[in-house]
Amino acid sequence: MSPDDRLESATDANDETLEWLSLAGDGTDAGETIRWRGGPRIQTAYPWVGLAAAGVVAALAAVVLELLPVVALAGVPLPALVAFWALASVSRTEYVVTDRRIAIRRGVLGVDVDTVGLERVQNTAVSQHAIARVVGYGTVTIEAASGATFAFRNVEEFDAVHDRLEDQRHGGRTADLPGSVEEWEAILAEVRGWRRALER
């Protein structure tokens, strides 16, 4: 299966609307279409959940063994809150690639949305740390012409997302231009003819 096929099969992106991102053209055939949407793997929050569980068990054991006073149990909700925040942060992060731009939604209590047009994308890269390589996820980093950096962190199908962005960065910019390749080649030939005439 090609990267494009895997990317298209990763989700039925166009079956759902995005509440946090307005698509140009209201989803009509001539409008902006979603090519891919996803988010970080929920498993990336599990270490925080594990640490929180270990902290709660350690606090309870310390109280039972009388190493800490009972009042120390008042701090038990703190690690649980950290675990909840990590889970909520991962589950409320979403990445979208349309045929015109990329968008990232983040935020637990509020919503923060960052977008950049595909024509502004200068470079993309893929990275994986050791655990991500074993488990099968990675991060796609996107550098914009403005100098801003965007990252699709800990996503599955990261290689297919990267390949699609690279294809659109190199060849997709002309997709929104009116006319066919032949028409543009004819215009180029006409301009070259004018230039030769002016140089005589």
UniProtKB/TrEMBL annotation:
Q: Which UniProt keywords apply?
A: Membrane, Transmembrane, Transmembrane helix
* Domain YdbS-like PH as annotated: residue spans: 92-164
Q: Which residues cross the membrane?
A: 45-65, 71-91
Q: Which InterPro entries match?
A: YdbS-like_PH (IPR005182)
Q: Could you tell me which Pfam families the record lists for this protein? A: bPH_2
**What is the name listed in the Swiss-Prot or TrEMBL entry for this protein?**
PH domain-containing protein
Give the species this sequence originates from. Answer: Natrialba swarupiae
